[in-house]
Structure formats: structure tokens, C-alpha cells
Amino acid sequence: MTISIDPQKTNNESLQPKGWLRYFSFSLDHKVIGIQYLVCGFLFYLIGGTLASAIRIELASPMSDFMPRDVYNQVLTLHGTIMIFLWIVPVVNGAFGNYLIPFYVGARDMAFPRLNAVAFWLIPPSGFMLVASYFVEGAAQAGWTAYPPLSITTPQSGQIIWILSVLLLGGSSIFGGINFIATIIKLRRPGLKLMQLPMYCWAMLGTSILVVLSTPVLAGTLILLSFDIIANTGFFNPVLGGNVVVYQHLFWFYSHPAVYIMVLPAFGLVSEILPVHARKPLFGYTTMVFSIMGIVVLGLVVWAHHMFTSGTPPWMRLFFTIATAFIAVPTGIKFFNWVATLWGGKISINSAMLFSCGFIINFVFGGITGVALAQVPFDIHVHDTYFVVAHFHYIVYGGTVFIIFSSIYHWFPKVTGKMLNEKLGILHFTITFIGFNLCFAPQHWLGLNGMPRRVAEYDPQFQFVNQISSLGALLMAISTIPFLINVFLSLRNGKNAGDNPWNALTSEWLTSSPPPVENWKGEAPLVEEPYGYGKEISEQK
Amino acid sequence: MTTLDSSKEIQKNNSEVHETHEDFRMFGLITFLIADGMTFAGFFAAYLTYKAVNPLPDGAIYELELPIPTLNTILLLVSSATFHKAGKALLKDKNSDSQKWLFLTAFLGIIFLICQLFEYFHLPFGLTDNLFASTFYALTGFHGLHVTLGTLMILIIAWQSRINGGRLTSQNMFPLEAVELYWHFVDGIWVVLFIILYLL
Questions:
Q1: List of chain A residues whose C-beta atoms are within 8 Å of the C-beta of residue B174
Q2: Measured between alpha carbons, how far is A221 from A40 in angstroms, rounded to an integer?
Q3: How far apart are CA A397 and CA A438, in angstroms?
Q4: If phi over 0 gives left and psi between -120 and 50 gives alpha, with beta otherwise, what is residue A194?
Q5: Taking the CB of residue B190, how many other CB atoms lie within 10 A of it?
Q6: Chain B contacts of A229, Cβ < 8 Å?
Q7: Which residue of A has its CA nearest to B41?
Q8: A25 Cα to chain B: minimum distance (Å)
Q9: A213, closest residue in chain B (CA to CA)
């Protein structure tokens, strides 16, 4: 059976508000939804960043003098949850996925536009709930992992709101994942083969498979946890005969794949950006595709490497160490491919390129510490220390957030029709890169010397290094200012971008900037060679 | 028109159509059911782990009787068959037959829920008595929620398969097929649940 789509009817153009008001409506246009995700996520990034600054101010001195110890725990819980569930996951999946995937598959919109809008509109209320949970009596203070028995025994009303909020965000994530899978597999333009898709489609396909398979497990686990809190059951409460390790297994069954949910789309985005600005085809397309799928499969069977100190039996430690070490192989392949893409290319040094190269440098570092952490003897030594904090932030900030900024510089001309200011962009990159490394590189040393994470007070011998780290955090906070100024100035009177300022070949550039409601005026273009750089551009047109 | 009504969209497809594409609503539903199945998989994994590593404390009562759940298994299996019959009837444009089969399916679902509640009231343990009691209620309760939703959806499509004015016709089978797939899924989960909770 086939469905006939009348674009005028499905998108209801006449009923939608025009201009900026449409960003506050239940719009079904994938581009509007993508921008909604991005701006909403960025607002939460500012909140989460403020909390991070508060954490670093507190840690500038060994005593808890800036805030009480329980407030510190609440702040770090809120920081982690906001950054993961309201900034990274929605932006790197929802924002760029919604904006780009329909272009890449040659479609007018996502497969299920209404489900798409629902998935977005679940986010603002649940974000509001999450922030509000801080202000009720007994805010959540068990970290973003919400490990029992801490999450059960501490004051609970905030924890319950926290759980409900994360459940809603998980639902949003699952709806988004279903939509991406259906769009990429079923909605491809006739004549477009799977192996001709831009790499971001493959990354989003892999990510969405992980979302669909692992997020429901987290939802189930959190439902059981909420029963423990509200109904006094004992699933994870040892006092009532429960088992905390079961929670950890179920939680990490989601939350390890969640790391790939946060980073695989960034892999896809960087694979789009590098070839454009290096004017070279993406190196090793087929190996890239298989590495992504390899990461998806392996990513589902490595979760217990977070639990080497949770009484895991030796066979389990051995299995998860080996499986984790194997993930380094496809990830390494991708890195060599990116470097080989740059090799001998005609590289333009602009903000998008700089952030992408910053990503490569940071992520290699985070990847190496990741392989180290997978080794049981080393992991037991640094478990729950600042080494883990440093590793994790090298992956999600040095990796994913750098790519989010890189993508904003790359696609801003397409979305708005205006160029961003390059000087301010390079200033933004420089401060971010220095600040980020100054903030997190010293934390490796702190962790190796035994400074525990998630504690407001520490041994005075660590003070100097912590102050360097806090200085880096200050630079990161400052780096947001040139970025915001850049965006506002460029929106008002930026240089006109034209349809294709980068001379890129993928199909979002083959339409006007900003694109019309149905993406293309005429028929969707068939891009068989998304990375055919180094040839005559006119040949492609 | 403020809502996308796919069936009306299809009926109008001879006028002002711009593009067509394959119907992948079923594909989306299957993806969703995989996700839903993973929630159950998580619960089952937790239950089996508890079974393996957490001994039942002294004096704790966790005993299940087989007759009611066996009856429930039969009820659900029969209801899957009656649902299938409803689809066959609708395909032959026998709307009233289809409606009868659907009401029968919903009736079986309701009986299932009543039996389940009856079992709850007659079990010798409560929700918070011990770990296995909690897991039992969480698993059967979560499944019961699915049966409740399914029964409500069956009643809705039964209403929509009425002869005059219903939107469920042999040209628009999707609502029925979707609920049928969901119902078979819930049925399949029950069989797994029955084996794991009652027989193991």
C-alpha cells in the first residue's frame, strides 16, 4: 500500500505562524524542529554551564565554603543531568538530525512529522521539571547515575521529579530514534542507495538503533527505582533484600550506549565537515560505515566496565575488558580515516575546521584514557576519582561539544542565509580550546593522585592544580561570550551567505539559504557522490 | 484540516497529489514494539538475576498457583485468534462480523484482567512483602497495563468498524492491523512471562 502525500496539506503551511513565531508553534517542518532543539538545548547548556562554574568555584578552595556539601551534590547532579539529557543528546541527535537527515535522504520531511514535533515538545516541560526539582525540598543529589541506595535514602521529593523528567526525556529520545530509523531506511529518494548516503546518516542510523534498544531499559529501571522510593518496595534496597548491583547493570546497559548516542552523531558530523573544508573525498567510506556498525554492536556489550569495583566476578571483568578494548579498533579506524582525509587536502583554516581539528585532538586523548580505564588493575586504582571526570569530559566536551560548535559554524549560513564572523569564531575557538585543556588535563593528575570525584572538600595538597582547573573553567565560561555576540551580530547584519558558501556537494547546499518549506523548489536532487571533491564542481551540478 | 488523517488522505489521492511514498507506519510500529520489548527484557533480566543471586529470606512467602495464569494464557491465545478472525472478516467487507470478533477479543481481554485482579487479591503476599513479590507485581502489573491499553484500543477500532460512518474499512485496514500486531506482541510477552514467572 502506498500513501499519497499532499505537501500543502501535510505541512499545513497556511495554518502555521510565519516568521520567528513558528519556532514557538507545534510546527511539523523538520527544519523548524531542528532549530527548536538547538536553541532549547543551548539555553539548557547555559544553565548547565552556570552550574559547572559554581562547581569549579567551590573546588578552587579545599573547604566547602562557597556552598554547603549537600548543595554541592545537588548542583553536580543537576549539572550532569542537564548537560547529558537536555544539551548533548537533544542537540547532537535531535537538532542536527532533524535538520540534516531529510536533506541527506532526499526527502521533504521526516517519516513521522507529528511524532517528531511531539518528541521535541516533550523536552521543554521535562527540562522545566528537572530544573524545578532543584527548588523543592530534598533536591536530587545522587549524581546523574542516581545510584541506589543513595537515591533511595536521601530526601526524595526532588529525586522523584528528577526520575519523571528523565523518563519523559527518554520517551522523547525513543520517538526521535524511531523516526530517524524510518526516515533513513524507508524514506530515501528513489535511486539513492544506502552506500551513497552521507556519513551522518549512517551515524544517526547506528545511534537510533542504540536509542531504541537501550533507552527502554533505563525507563524500566527508573520505574522500578521510583517504586522503591514511593511504594517502599525493595528492588534495589539491600535493607529489604534487594540488589544494588542489578540497578547498576540495568543503568549502564543504557548509559554506556548513551556515550555512543552522544558521540556517534558527532563522528558523523565531523565526517561531513572535514571533506568540505579540506576539498578532498572522505577517506575510507566503507570502513567508516562498518566501524559505525561495529561500534553499535560492541557498544551494547561493554557496559560492565563501569562496574569493575562493584564486586563483578573475574570472568565478567575479563569479558568486558576485552570487549571494551575491541571498541578501540573501529574508533581508531575512524581517526585514521579523518587524518587521511585531511592529508594533502586544500585546507581552509576557518572556525568550523578549527573546531573539528580540536575535536580530533581532544578525542584521541579521551579515547586513549578510555582504553586505559578499560584495564581492570588501572580502573580499580582510579575508580571514582577525577581521572574519570577528565576522561569523560574529554569525550563529551572535547569531543561532542566541539563538534556541535563546529557544526554551528558550518551550517549557520545554510540555516540563516548569513555568514558568521570568522574573527570572532577563531577567538571563540582559541579561548575554548585553551580553557578546555587547562580545565580538564590537570584533572588526570588529580585523579591519579587519588582525589575523589563528587566531593566538595579535598586534601589541601591538591589546591594549586584545582585552581588551574578552575581558571580553565573560567576561560570556558568566557568563551561563550564571543560566540553569542557573533551569533547576534551575524543574524542582524552578517555577510550574505548565498546558497552554497563552502562549495559543498551534499544536498542541503543545493537549495536556497534558508531552505524553503519543502526543502527544494523542484524535484529533490540525487547526490550519488556526496564526497566527490577534487573534481570540477560544475560536473556535479 | 488541522490533523493529518491518513485514511482520508488516501481516499483523496486522485486529486492534487504531489508525491507518493510507501506506507511505513507499520515499520514505525514494529520499531516501537522492539523498544517496548526491551523494557520487558530489562525486567526479565532483573528478575532472573534476582533468582540467581538473591535467596528468598527465611519466613518470606512467595508461592504462585498455576490454574489462573494457565486460564489467562489460554484466554490471551484465543483472543489472538479471534482478532485474526476480525481482520479476515473486515478484508471481505463483512464489517458487522468483524465488529463481533473485535468485541469478543475485547471481552476476552477484560476477562483476562479480571482474572489477574482475582489472582492479586488471593495471593498470600503483597507488593512490599519481599523482593520476589515486588518483582512479580511489577512484571504482571506492567503487562496488565499493556493489556488494558490494548483492550481500550480494540474497543475503539470496534466502534470504528461500524457499517455506516466508521473509518475502518477494507481499504483502510491499518488501524486494525496495528492494534492486531500490538495485541499479538502483548500476547507473546505474556507467554514469556508465564514461562519465566510461573514455570521456572
A1: 1
A2: 27
A3: 13
A4: alpha
A5: 22
A6: none
A7: A217
A8: 13
A9: B35
Helix ranges (DSSP H) in A187-243: 199-230
Q: At which residue does the C-alpha cell 551494547 appear?
A: A300
Give A283 to chain B, closest Cα distance, Å: 32
3-state helix, strand, coil in chain A (%, to 5): 70, 0, 30
Shortest alpha-carbon distance between residue B115 and chain A (Å): 24
Report yes or no: A510 and A500 within 8 Å, Cβ to Cβ.
yes
Q: Which residue among B18, B40, B131 places its CB closest to the CB of A242? A: B131
- For residue B123, report the phi and psi dihedrals to the nearest 5 degrees: -75, 145
Nearest CA in chain B to A233: B128
Given a contact cutoff of 8 angstroms between Cβ atoms, the answer to whether B36 and B181 are in contact is no
- H helix intervals, A449-541: 463-493, 537-540
Report the SS3 class of residue A16.
coil
What grid cell was written down for A281? 573525498
Task: Give how far Cα A53 sits from Cα of A79, A182, A467, A475, Å.
Answer: 10, 40, 12, 10
Distance from CA of B58 to the nearest CA of A (A): 11
User: Is the Cβ pair B131, A9 closer than 8 Å?
Assistant: no
ipTM of the complex: 0.90
Chain B hits for A10, CB-CB cut-off 8 Å, are 4, 9
Return the minimum-mean-pLDDT range out of A125-134, A319-328, B1-10, B175-184.
B1-10
pTM for the whole thing? Answer: 0.92
| Res A18 pLDDT > 80 | no
Report the alpha-carbon angle B88-B92-B95, nearest 5. 85
For residue B76, what are the CA distances in angstroms to A241, B89, B190, B199?
34, 20, 8, 17
The CA distances from residue B131 to A232, A234, A236, B51, B56, in Å, are 11, 6, 9, 10, 8
Q: Among A2, A3, A253, which would you mutate to test the B interface (most chain B Cβ atoms within 10 Å of its Cβ)?
A: A3
Cβ–Cβ gap A4/B34 under 8 Å: no
C-alpha cell at A235: 528492588
A399-414 pLDDT per residue, tens:
999 999 999 999 999 9
Left if phi > 0, otherwise alpha if psi is -120 to 50, otherwise beta: which for A496? beta
Q: Minimal Cα–Cα distance from A233 to chain B, Å? A: 5
d(CA A175, CA A215): 11
Counting one residue from chain A and one from chain B, the pairs whose CB atoms sit within 8 A come to 146
Residues B54 and A458: their CA atoms lie apart, in Å, by 37
Question: Which set of grid coordinates corresponds to residue B165?
Answer: 460512518
Query: For the segment A34-81, what is each residue's pLDDT rounded down to a tens digit?
Result: 999 999 999 999 999 999 999 999 999 999 889 999 899 999 999 999
The amino acid occupying position B63 is E
B41 CB neighbours in chain A (<8 A) are 217
Nearest to A182 among B27, B42, B57 (CB): B27
| Residue numbers in B near A179 (CB within 8 A) | 28
Inter-chain CB proximity A12 and B2 less than 8 Å: yes
> CA A331 → CA A338, A441, A495, B26, B163, distances in Å?
11, 22, 38, 34, 59
Q: Which residues pair with A496 in a beta bridge?
A: A418
How buried is residue A497: exposed, middle or buried, by Cβ count under 10 Å (0-12/13-18/19+)?
buried
The DSSP annotation for A272-317 comes to HHHHHHHTSPPTTHHHHHHHHHHHHHHHTT-GGGG-TTTT--HHHH
In A, minimum Cα distance to B142 occurs at: A220
